Amino acid sequence: MTKKLNEDKSPELPYGLRDKRKLKKDERFRFDCNDKLDCFTRCCADVNILLTPVDVLRLSRRLKISTTEFLAQHTMTPVTKDLNLPVVMLKMNDGPHKPCPFVDEAKGCTVYEDRPWSCRMYPLGMALPPARAGVDPEPIYFLFEDDFCHGRRESKEWTAERWLENQGIAARESLEKGFYEVISHPWFIGGRQLDPKRLEMFYMASFDLDTFRRFVFSSTFLGRFELGDDLIEKMRNSDEELLRFSPRWLRFALFGEPTLKAKNNQSGRNS
């Protein structure tokens, strides 16, 4: 997942990126991962894999379970005083090496087409500068040069832009864009914190899409907001359309932005 950083004060840099090399815009790096490498799947154990909303959605559909079940069975949500918002982390299997539950030592990733954002990104890391009113944060990329990874000795060369395109990151941007706008929102400038009720709203609308769907279609929600029949039908029939909509509701519910219009005589705030 993206991390926020202070461009001027290195201590603000997320711990996992503090010793990593920052990549220039068009700087090249070498990397390839394949089952011929003796380190194959070594990076898939005892690792912190932060999940995005798209990750949770696609993995749950891959496993044919609800997002609610996936979150309960396969994730944990660490709580620290340094986090403005809850994060969702993939739970490793028990055992001495704590392997990823979706990795086979011989075959590799068993959910490869739906693998998480963090797995697609490696060996790159990404951070976002602190939120500034009226300024869209530009991501900054870092290179992981882990000794155990022999893929960095391979001959294939990449830039950050080409790597993101190759790994399908660019194709996810339209789905992820609203989520990143919420987590990097200027409302958080100065360390402001959401209250517990709004934290629950964020978690549900971002990660637990099946619960959010029930909230939208099985409560008074549709009676409170002017959404339009076309949008309602799209959300009813498409997980991705509902996922695109959720940040609109979050910006309304969390930050009081006019991203939704309440119907006459309806405040909409408690929906």
Give a description of the structure:
It is a single chain. This protein is α+β, with helices and mostly antiparallel strands. It folds into two domains: 3-183, no CATH class; 194-255, no CATH class. Helix content is 34%, strand content 10%. The chain has helices at 53-63, 67-74, 117-121, 160-166, 173-183, 196-207, 209-217, 221-224, 229-237, 239-255, and strands at residues 3-4, 21-22, 29-30, 50-51, 75-76, 88-90, 103-104, 108-109, 124-128, 140-143, 157-158. Mean pLDDT is 88; it is low at 1-11.
Which value, in Å, is the CA radius of gyration?
20 Å
Spatial shape: globular
Biggest β-sheet: count, sense, barrel?
A: 4 strands, mixed
* Count of beta strands: 11
* Computed structural class: alpha+beta
Spatial strand order of the main sheet: 1-9-10-2
Strand content: 5-15%
Instruction: Give helix % range.
Output: 25-40%
* Count of folded domains: 2
Summarize the structure.
This protein has 271 residues and is an alpha+beta fold. Helix content is 34%, strand content 10%.
List the helices and strands and how they pair.
Layout: E1 3-4, E2 21-22, E3 29-30, E4 50-51, H1 53-63, H2 67-74, E5 75-76, E6 88-90, E7 103-104, E8 108-109, H3 117-121, E9 124-128, E10 140-143, E11 157-158, H4 160-166, H5 173-183, H6 196-207, H7 209-217, H8 221-224, H9 229-237, H10 239-255
Parallel strand pairs: 1-9
Antiparallel strand pairs: 2-10, 3-11, 4-6, 5-6, 7-8, 9-10
What attributes does this structure have?
4-stranded mixed β-sheet, 10 helices, globular, disordered N terminus, alpha+beta, 2 domains, 34% helix, single chain, 3-stranded antiparallel β-sheet, 271 residues
